[in-house]
Amino acid sequence: MTNRLSAQVAFLKRADELKMVERANVLLDQSRPENSAEHSWHLALWALVMAPLAGSDVSIDRVIRMLLLHDLVEIIVGDHPIHLETDWASVAKAEQAAALELFGLLPKDQADALHAFWREFEEDQSPDARFSKILDRCQPLFQVLCAPNPNPDHVDIARSNLEGGRAAYLAQVFPLAYEHAINLLAGTDTRANAFTTRLPFLTEADQLKSVLRASRLMAGDRFENSAEHSWHIMLYAWVLSESAPQKISVDRVIQMLLLHDIVEIDAGDNPIHGQVDHAAQAVKEQAAAKRLFGLLPDTQCKGFTTLWQEFEAADSPDAKFAKAVDRFQTPIANLETGGGSWVDYKVTYAQLEARVQPAIAAGSPRLWDWLQPQLAAYFQSGEALHH
Question: Are 292 and 211 in contact (CB under 8 A)?
C-alpha cells in the first residue's frame, strides 16, 4: 500500500507543473496571463455555480472531475490559443501521448479511470463532456468581456470567436450565455436571468488567483496562489480518497475544497506558521463568506455557505478528510523545495507535530504515517539547520 501511495503522490507532484503553463488570456485585472491550473479551478467553480442551468442528464460531480483533468496534458504539450493557426491533428496526437505518460504515473486502476475521464472530455460526446466543453468556451470569453479595462485585441478575438469560431455554437447550446456575451460586446443591457445573476460571483472569484500563499511551487520559484492551490488539493482529494479512514463522499470533499479558500479574497491568506489572531481572522472570514456567497441566488448562497462552514468546523468525516488533504499538500511541496516555507518561518519539527499532525491524523492516519518519516528525516538530516 505504501508503494501505491508513493505512486499517487508522484503523480500529484508532477501535476504541480500545470501552475507554470501560461494561457493566452489574462486575469480580469489584466495584471498577468492566467495559468492552466487556476483556469481549471475557475472552470470547476463555473460548473458548480452553473449546475442549475445544466440539462437533467448532466452529472455536475463528473463535470467537475473532468474539468480538473482536462488541461493536465499541457504540462507536456503547452497551451494552444484558439485564434492561432495550428495543426490540430498533431496537437491531438501529442496530447494523447502526454495523457498516457502523465496518468501512467498512477497505479493502473486509477490511471485507467482518470485517463477515461480525460478522453471523454476530448471526445465531447456525452452530456457531461458537452457541458464541460460549453463552460470551457464560456470562461475565457467572459474573462475578457467582464474585465473593467479589457485588452482591445482580446475583445476582437472574443468577437470573432462568438461570430464564427468555437463559441458560435453557444447560440444553440447555451443561449443565455451567448446573448449576454453579444450584449456585452454591443454595450447593451441583458435582462436579469439565471445566467446573469450568477456571473458576478464568478468574476469576483477571479481575484483568488492574486491571493499569494506562503508556500512555493515545486516547479518554479514563485509563491503559490490560493486558486491554483485549491485546484491542486481537489486533485489530491480525488486521487488519495482511498486513504480516508471511513466512508466519505469524494465529490462533496472536492466541492468543499473548491470553495474553502474563497473567503481569502477579502480576508487574505494566513500562513499556518505565521503569527495570527485567530479570533479576528475568523470574524473577517465570516464577513467575507457573507459578502461573496451573498452574490449568488439564495439557494446557492445558503448551500455554499453551509459547505464552507462544514469545512471550517472539521467535524464531519468529509470535512476531516478535506482538512487532512489541505494540510498534506504543503509539506509535500516543502520537502521537494528544500524546506520552502519552513525555512522562511524557521519551523521546527515540534511545530509541525503540533500544527500539522492533528489535522492530517484526524482525517487520514494513513497519510500521516506515510509523511511522518520523511518529515523526521528532513529535520534530523540537519537539512533544516543549514538554512
Answer: no
Tens digit of each residue's pLDDT (9 = 90 or more) over 67-80: 999 999 999 998 88
Helices 226-239 & 2-15, crossing angle to 10 degrees?
150
Give kind and range of the element (H or E) at residue 28. Answer: none
Lowest mean pLDDT among 94-98, 188-192, 289-293, 340-344: 340-344
With contact defined as beta carbons under 8 Å apart, do 141 and 162 qualify? Answer: yes
State how far the Cα of 41 lies from the Cα of 231, in Å rounded to an integer. 5
Type of residue at 322: A
Q: Is 271 left (phi over 0), alpha (psi -120 to 50) or beta?
A: beta
Q: Give the span between the Cα atoms of 110 and 225, in whole angstroms.
A: 28
What is d(CA 53, CA 173) in angstroms, rounded to the nearest whole number?
A: 11
Enter the DSSP assignment of 53.
Answer: G
Question: Does the pLDDT of residue 280 top 90, yes or no?
Answer: no
User: Strand, helix or coil at 359?
Assistant: helix
Helix (H) or strand (E) holding 175: helix 175-186
Q: Residue 92: how many CB atoms within 10 A of its CB?
A: 11
- Residue 179 is predicted with a pLDDT of 97
Per-residue pLDDT of 51-65, as tens digits, reads 999 999 999 999 999
Nearest to 184 by CA among 156, 152, 142, 149: 142
- With 80 as the cut, is the pLDDT of residue 274 above it? no
Burial class, 306, CB count within 10 angstroms (exposed 0-12 / middle 13-18 / buried 19+)? exposed
Taking only the tens place, the pLDDT of each residue in 177-214 is 999 999 999 999 999 999 999 999 999 999 999 999 98
- Show Cβ contacts of residue 277 under 8 Å, excluding neighbours closer than 6 positions: none
| Spatial CA neighbour of 322 closest among 368, 254, 242, 270 | 254
Which set of grid coordinates corresponds to residue 201? Answer: 460571483
What is the spatial distance between Cα 326 and Cα 272, in angstroms, rounded to a whole number?
A: 11
- Cβ-based neighbours of 155, under 8 Å, separated by 6 or more: 144, 145, 185
Identify the DSSP state of 56.
Answer: T
* DSSP 3-state of 145: helix
